[in-house]
Amino acid sequence: MSSNKKYWKSVEELNENSSIVETLRNNEFVEEIPTDEFLGDAASLASSNTTRRDFLKYVGFSTAAATLAACEGPVHKSIPYVVQPEEIIPGVADYYATSFSDGFDFANVLVKTREGRPIKIENNKIEGANFHANARVHASVLSLYDSLRLKNVKIAGKDASWNEANSKIKESVADAKAKGAKVVLLTNTTASPSTDRLIGQFLAQNPNAKHVVYDAVSSSEALDAFQMVYGERALAEYDFSKANVIVSVGADFLGDWQGGNYDAGYAQGRIPQNGKMSRHFQFESNMTLSGAAADKRVPMTVATQKLALVKIYSIVTGAAVAVGKFDGEAEVIKAAQQLKAAGAKGVLVSGIEDKNAQLLVLAINRALTSEAFNPANSRQIRKGNTAEVKQLIADLKAGAVHTLIMSGVNPVYSMPNGKEFAEALKKTKLSVSFTMKEDETALSSTIAVAAPHYLESWGDVSIVKGQYAITQPTIRPLFSTVQFQDALLSWTGNVQTYYDYIRSSWSGAKSWNQLVHDGVVSMEVGAGAGTGADFNAAATVLAGTKSTGTELILYTKTGMGDGQQANNPWLQEFPDPITRASWDNYLTVSKSDAQAWGLENWNVANGGLNGSLATLTVNGVKLENVPVMIQPGQAKGTVGLALGYGRKASLKEEMQVGVNAYALYQGFNNVQTVTVAKADGEHEFACVQLQKTLMGRGDIIKETSLEIFNTKDAAEWNIMPVVSLDHKEVPAKSVDLWESFDRSIGHHFNLSIDLNACTGCGACVIACHAENNVPVVGKSEVRRSRDMHWLRIDRYYSSETTFAGDNKVKGESDGLIDTISTLSGMEDPSENPQVAFQPVMCQHCNHAPCETVCPVAATSHGRQGQNQMAYNRCVGTRYCANNCPYKVRRFNWFLYNQNDEFDFHMNDDLGRMVINPDVNVRSRGVMEKCSMCIQMTQATILKAKNEGREVKDGEFQTACSSACTSGAMIFGDVNDKDSKVAKLVEDSRAYHLLEHIGTKPNVVYQVKVRN
């Protein structure tokens, strides 16, 4: 029924006459095999007479010999400890609880170390550790080993000692104090109680000093509104698991909105339980993760969103605030009515950066008495103050700042007019930047102080009120670094180390050692009260909103965030969940606007995506040569552009990609009126939309509506394929081409993936990268379909809610002309498509097609259900990849390790410190793919064996299942009938990918249900 719906990954696939799509379907490997490189001189080879026997000698069983040294694995020598540290057992991982905070992302995490090296970030799952790692936090371990980190203090660009720098800073601060001149501490949001105390002590000793908090991406308006109502500068906390109706007006709460980390609670309500699930309305401009997950998504401009918010406010609270007609009003009224009916089980959020809009959000949730709305445990993050930052800029320009000390900020890059800020720095007597990188601001400062990575630092953080967490070092500082807090101690005359300072000030329910062990502790808090706000007046102001032209919406991408980790190749190569493009930012444009402006996207012969370039003008400021991506679901009259790209300083050349959208972030407002003009030239994207497509191969995505799910038999909405046996139709899974092994003894691993819970966040992709030493190949290779990700998250678009809906639309068309236009419209659903995400990795088939065609038995099946790879046996015939229906095998076209052609982390000694010693680093010519983290499952079995017990349910994990905070991925042993995964495999929503071909996968999917 609904599972026969047509899905498409790229607009190009909707063109039935596309020769490119047809070629890609029939030719999985779009690049020619470079036989000249493998077999020597191509000319002499062509002129030789080669017998069939000689040919097999080259490309069959002895290809390993023919590939010569190119495929030979490097030899490594092991050096033993002279004196082995007591806490380190070679071969056994240690885990340390710590906290991540960089001013933009915050998380409670565990750090996996091997032989003293941090190699992977895990989620801290202890009670009270509520903030989990996103893709950027998982990737942060690689930033520790960035070879371009600032390695020591620099004064005027020359190497110096900390004592020299400290002396100059103290002299400047004393001189300013004597003259009554201004000293300013400019920091990001630290969310650190101890740092706040130290800054307070510094300000007390220096009455002429001021502390200004600056976040590159501002939430200042929401902070102002919350402060007015609740008396503190903070953000409301939300628990979406307690909401039956969720209405979002421009808030990508599954992305980076107000710090993110809402996906776990959200997913709890999205998995059908007892026939119920939450209902989610999304009103937005850009297509976001939240919009992709919504049951009802309505694209609209931000100006219209403001009117929609007033309408919702009037309906929920009963306030009589007049608002004119606007597009999408009927859908807004419907959402508002359902929200009001839900009462305490309803919640509204908004990402509109406007104080009046944020006041209405608070008013609506108070009127609902929403259980999901929690102002008491407020978020202590994103505390940047736009008004104070603007005043600082004015003071700098006027030469009124004597000494400026910066920590954790890069304003020369991220300010709307960074060059102006750099010039203003010259008017100070002294400018100091504490930074991990010799970035744009460090290069413009008098003194650049090398700051440690968070994995080298002590600290504390309070992400939400009532939670206190510790940051502890997991490795000694790699370079000559100085922590900002240690400098503050020195400037205030305190001889303590920062560690002693934190420890001496701790007093709580847990002992210090227990706190360090757990990483986090919870405490009771109460809500504050502010001066009050006139909500009706705020609504009246918003009701007068008028459109001022095309809107530019500036946002942060799931991978890159605000750009702090721009030199991290894992994040650069991470495909954006929505556009599926990596190594770029770009202007997202609706199809209708693109046609009006003459902007295009097109696919070339090898499937690569190309696009037009555009020039953007905002208040006279021009941003030239911006690549254009035509985005289904983009609201007409709006365009989107991601912040965090366009950096140059302290980045490897390969990472210097994209355009700097901060130049258009005027007044720290993420919505600007823009003029778009087509520019000359074209841009080549590294986009994986058309790569490895499964479109047209049968039931890939299965979905249904909640009504059908509740009222119809599973056989109707989860149709199982049938095959012919003895001229009778029988279920496909009942027929085997091969004899099956008895897998009832011992462990047998399965992975369940719930399409309802998957938000496409990509944390699993980066976690897999870290755990399994997946190489980065660069933009050019990704464009050639050679990305090495073991796990990909396919993104599909569709038009109608169900297959029955498709039939209804077609059936209601009248006459030839109407029918043609109707069908044409259904084939081009780019105005507002529905979206589904599907993680795809090796399916670990019990009857695996790859195993039967490998001439050297390099790939085989294990008794525990895992498809195994013996890399030393693999000779790179790629027969297995040709025979894999799921397109999950990756071929090492080159040696990516220690190769100057691939100058990423594996090309230098420091970067290779992140490599997991439990997983082999593959060589050229070898095929690789997901191993279902066999090293992790075997370690779990050995641990239980050593402790003389059975493995408990939940202990078995893979990198992806462990990283998944939404609960979409559940891994375990199906032979344990009480395990979660065993029950999910038998669930009525369970199905296998391409079940009709009889591969019998060990990965099972759960049918997507829409409310």
TrEMBL record:
Domain 4Fe-4S ferredoxin-type: 749-779, 833-864, 865-894
Organism encoding this protein: Flavobacterium luminosum
Entry superkingdom: Bacteria
Name the record gives this protein: TAT-variant-translocated molybdopterin oxidoreductase
InterPro entries: 4Fe4S_Fe-S-bd (IPR017896), TAT_var_transloc_signal_dom (IPR030948)
Record PANTHER family: GLUTAMATE SYNTHASE [NADPH] SMALL CHAIN (PTHR42783), GLUTAMATE SYNTHASE [NADPH] SMALL CHAIN-RELATED (PTHR42783:SF3)
Signal peptide: none
Pfam families named in the record: Fer4_11
